[in-house]
Amino acid sequence: MKWLLGVSLMIAIAAGWAATAMISVAAVSIDDVSLRFLPPDTDAVAFVDVASLKNAPLVQDLLKTQDLPLPNKLADFTRLTGFDPKQDIDRVTVAKIGTREALLVVQGRIDKFKVEQFLKDEGKVPEVYLGQSIYREGDGAVVILDNVALIGQFSAVTKAIDQMQLPGSLPLRVELMSGIQQIEAGNQVWAVGNISLNDLGPGVARMSPVMEMLKNLRSGTFQLRVDSGVHARGTGTFTEAESAQQIGDMVRSLLAIVRLQVSAKDPTLLSLLDGIQVSYSGSVLTVKVDESAEAIEKLKSLKPAQILQQ
What we know:
By secondary structure, the protein is an alpha+beta fold. It is 43% helix and 27% strand. The protein folds into two domains: 2-165, Protein Transport Mog1p, Chain A, CATH 3.40.1000; 174-309, no CATH class. The protein is globular.
């Protein structure tokens, strides 16, 4: 199952390359293939259009300069199955189901026969559930369909199989669907739903005072698109308006301090800071990022040590 986690990690890296601005076009709809597998108790959804990201000019430039070598296990998997995660993954949907379960729906050019044969050669014995072969390792499980892989806890995967057996998908929560419909089309990455600091793990929740301030976070949205520049918008809804205001004021203060330092050392970097806006209204905190191609080129020209010195 570690090779599957490796694939997920590469997806996260790909997602980290992107961001998007608000555009006045029709609202995005959730991917129909993914929706087929999401049970009604889905609490949050994140989506990455990997194929679209790879076509973005900025990402193509990064791919030319960044080489992500595959771990040995993943390299063996690619060689034996013909599936290259860096080339053959098109879309990834991550669903938070209830409070403890997560489901990963990976779409791409996946050869069911070759991947299942690889798993069998690795000593994995399938369990048959409603006609589908589930390969388990501890609480983790994977099901390979034609050009789709379902990955997650065994209970989450069986729920996805239950869902796909239905003649029509059961509706997701009204609040979740409403949030999804607020995401603008053209975003390569987006996320909507209920989330709390505990979803990141107890270790993360104790990392810093900032994390303590985020303990009242209850839900949020994130939308992101990459072209030749980087643009993003995220909102967080807190249980108390005071939390949104405290975090917003803290971020504004940090940006002001950085602006003073940058203006004295390299005023050309001010355009990067101009592209970041922080606001709050009641219990909702909003962060917008809109970086032009010129600003990104300036940032790319700096070495890590130079950025730290700014």
